[in-house]
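Model the whole thing, not chain by chain.
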Amino acid sequence: MTLREVLAENLKRHRLAAGLSQEELAHRADIDRTYVSSLERCQYAATVDVIEKLARELKIDASLLLQQP
Amino acid sequence: MTLREVLAENLKRHRLAAGLSQEELAHRADIDRTYVSSLERCQYAATVDVIEKLARELKIDASLLLQQP
DNA sequence: CTGTGACTTGCAGTCCGTG
DNA sequence: CCACGGACTGCAAGTCACA
């Protein structure tokens, strides 16, 4: 289980819990829709800057996105 | 307080707690010596791949490196 | 609404050195 | 042991069309 996969799962779970689509979250976090899609499919190793934007819009602590199940 | 700064502080604190120098940690995590120094000075936005390597050698959960004080 | 391939660009990350 | 610099490479970052 890589950290990319952990991030992907946590991102999707918290996004759905917030009732947001990939598009809505992307728009609010000011990043591209397809990039959020890429992250949820483990295509890239996100930087802390992106994690910060996502966590802010999901209204959660950034560390929750990297938390192992 | 940016997430880069949070990472920088947590990295330094956990590194010292493990009794490792920047050089030793870098060598064990198989990343560049000067890059660990750069991260502790908030020069770059680290990727989750690097965070994973660092956390593994520090024997802590990756989420602890992004945890807000 | 989301997955995907193709593409360009800026920065993450490396390697050499210095005081 | 660490901060800091320059130069380099590869990938994250960001955009688009299409299914």
